[in-house]
Structure formats: structure tokens, C-alpha cells
Specification:
Blueprint lengths: L5 H7 L6 E4 L3 E5 L9 E5 L11 H22 L3 E5 L13 E6 L18 H18 L4
Antiparallel strand pairs: 1-2, 2-3, 3-5, 4-5
């Protein structure tokens, strides 16, 4: 655990944040600057900066807890639903992988995504983009 990582410090010193859940592989705590009250961050105990860095064995535990907390946030807070998000590098305020679980209510003022939508130039651009992603996915996982 890097000494300078805020989330590693929260894992080492639970009193630094309001923990809502923890197990052998994950810790979940309230975001100190919530989008809405009940905004939870789910982090792996081991320091991994991005989703791509997360070992495959930790994928199910991390997202299993995120799934559990979507239900807990909805039921515990009477929310209509949740918004689940994860940033990799860009807009990642803390370089320790974290999944946001944010309570949502109809009419809460959150509209769509937080960034502008940029469409494809044309169908050719769409197909080229698809093919480039497919090719890279095949290269990274040749078993598929």
C-alpha cells in the first residue's frame, strides 16, 4: 500500500472514513464529497490504480460488493435506483481503483452523463471504431 494513497490510508486507518462494508478483499465507505448523500466508494484492499491493473481474481469480489451495495443503498435510503460509475485515469481523483455507487431518485436533477456526447462522423467511422476495438480485444484475449 503506497503511503501517499488516500484510499490506502483509509483502509489502514478505518477511522478516516465512514465505512459501510468490508470483507477480505474490499472496503466500502462514504465519499467525503458526495454527489448525493449515500454516495459510496468501493475499493479493493490491495492498491491497484485502474480496472486494467486489477488482477482477474479480484474482479468478481469487487463488483460483487458493488452489486450488493446497489441493493443496500436503494433499500437503506429508499432510493429509486443507483448510478454506478468507475473512472480510469481521466477524472480519477484518487489513483486507487474505486467504484462509485450513487443513490438516485426521480427528479434528483442529475441529467444523463457528466460529459458531452460526441457521435460518430458517419457509419464508416462507427464500423472502423468497432473493428479497431474488436481487433485489440482479440489481441489481448486470443482465447475468445
Amino acid at each position: 500500500m503506497p503511503a501517499a494513497c488516500v484510499f490506502c490510508a483509509i483502509i489502514r486507518e478505518p477511522e478516516r472514513a465512514e465505512h459501510v462494508y468490508e470483507d477480505a478483499q474490499t472496503v466500502a465507505f462514504l465519499d467525503h464529497r458526495p454527489l448525493f448523500p449515500g454516495h459510496v466508494l468501493v475499493v479493493p484492499r490491495e492498491h491497484h490504480e485502474t480496472l486494467a491493473d486489477l488482477p482477474p481474481a479480484l474482479l468478481a469480489p469487487l463488483f460483487g460488493v458493488a452489486r450488493l451495495l446497489t441493493r443496500a443503498v436503494e433499500a437503506g435510503l429508499g432510493a429509486d435506483g443507483t448510478f454506478v460509475a468507475l473512472n480510469n485515469k481521466v477524472s480519477q481523483s484518487v489513483p486507487h481503483l474505486h467504484v462509485h455507487v450513487i443513490p438516485r431518485r426521480k427528479g434528483d436533477g442529475l441529467r444523463g452523463f457528466f460529459w458531452p456526447r460526441v457521435g460518430y462522423k458517419d457509419r464508416e467511422h462507427l464500423l472502423e471504431t468497432r473493428d479497431r476495438i474488436r481487433a485489440e480485444a482479440s489481441r489481448l484475449d486470443p482465447a475468445r
